[in-house]
Amino acid sequence: MSKIIILFSLKFVVLFAIFPLCANAVIYNVQNFGAKPNNGRDSTKAFLQAWSLACSSTTPAMMFIPRGTYLVNTVAFSGPCKSARVTVRIDGKIQAPPSSYWEIGNYGTWILFQGINGLTINGGILDARGSPFWICRRASAYCPQGATSLSFNNVKNGIVSGIVSIDSQKAHMAINGCKTMKIRKVTLIAPAQSPNTDGIDIQSSTGIKILDSSIRTGDDCIAIGPGTKSLLVQRVVCGPGHGISIGSLARSPNEAGVEGIKVKDVTLTGSDNGLRIKTWPKPSNGFVKNVLYQNIVMNNVRNPIIIDQIYCPGTKGCSDQNSGLKISGVTYLNVSGTSATPIAIRFHCSATTPCDGIKLSNVNLTYSKQPAKTFCFSALGTSSAGQLGTSLSVGQLGTSLSVGRPTPGSCF
């Protein structure tokens, strides 16, 4: 059984897991290839050598990073691997170079795993030293593009457990073109004011599970992009940040759709948004369908439930067109807590492509100890067994096209 050690610091609490070495695996210790902890020297080459041997092993193999702090520059661990499963065990801290502002910021990714079938990553701390990059972004100076701390491209049958990622330049984690991955017990931390520090970005991926994790960042807790299917998010705490977002979508007219999303047993605290779906006001063949939000607790969230089909940050690059992206079959079941604003539910759907199949069941949200209000435009659905304040439905569709038996104070 794993031993759990809790480390306290002035800034955060780190849950550090020490996993037992795999008895049947061939172990490649990065220190045997020249990695020196705690001395400020670049260990990238040693990490790559250990990975190369682990990946080329015909039997189960492990790349092992012992305790200590290791400086690592931009690095890609690539497959395919010969073994059915390769494990990366991190007992120490992997840290970006002191000048990571440029050294990793110019590449878009810091640590990348790609083209691997059967990958396990256990434990460890990733420190991207993102602060200088955020300062540059806030100053509107010439800046590099910024790097995602940990990326997975075309990985199948992956398990990521126990990672602690702090101060990413941009997103902490990105999952692109992956199938059947489990992300569990990860802790992602960046200050509330850090720009674009998403927790986990997902797109073009199927069968992803995000479980038992804590995400406290400056942007989306989880951002669900085009082509995401069969995603489960469960027992996650989120906040500060911008909540759990589907989108933004409809950037281009031919995006892949999003479907089969389940978000369950989640708590959001002090975030700008709670459960958000956002699309640009542009033509699109894309869609969002079959989404379930269940057993959600909101604590002082500014926009607990929001569908925004006129998403246009900074009002740049937007047209006078309506969103062509179709949103249907979205269920909110057992959602409770407090809103930081009077309007807790805001459905602003496309005037030409209305949202339909929206279901509110046992939704209880308050503002200043009173039932919160709702706003609907071009949204069709039903509501039951909850408590909300007065409806502010407007527009050419409004409540006149709502279906089902209306509950007093709801949109429908």
UniProtKB/TrEMBL annotation:
<feature type="signal peptide">
    <location>
        <begin position="1"/>
        <end position="25"/>
    </location>
</feature>
<comment type="similarity">
    <text>Belongs to the glycosyl hydrolase 28 family.</text>
</comment>
<dbReference type="GO" id="GO:0004650">
    <property type="term" value="F:polygalacturonase activity"/>
</dbReference>
<keyword id="KW-0378">Hydrolase</keyword>
<dbReference type="GO" id="GO:0071555">
    <property type="term" value="P:cell wall organization"/>
</dbReference>
<feature type="active site">
    <location>
        <position position="242"/>
    </location>
</feature>
<keyword id="KW-0732">Signal</keyword>
<dbReference type="GO" id="GO:0005975">
    <property type="term" value="P:carbohydrate metabolic process"/>
</dbReference>
<dbReference type="InterPro" id="IPR000743">
    <property type="entry name" value="Glyco_hydro_28"/>
</dbReference>
<protein>
    <recommendedName>
        <fullName>Polygalacturonase</fullName>
    </recommendedName>
</protein>
<dbReference type="Pfam" id="PF00295">
    <property type="entry name" value="Glyco_hydro_28"/>
</dbReference>
<dbReference type="InterPro" id="IPR006626">
    <property type="entry name" value="PbH1"/>
</dbReference>
<keyword id="KW-0326">Glycosidase</keyword>
<dbReference type="InterPro" id="IPR011050">
    <property type="entry name" value="Pectin_lyase_fold/virulence"/>
</dbReference>
<keyword id="KW-0964">Secreted</keyword>
<keyword id="KW-0961">Cell wall biogenesis/degradation</keyword>
<dbReference type="InterPro" id="IPR012334">
    <property type="entry name" value="Pectin_lyas_fold"/>
</dbReference>
<keyword id="KW-0134">Cell wall</keyword>
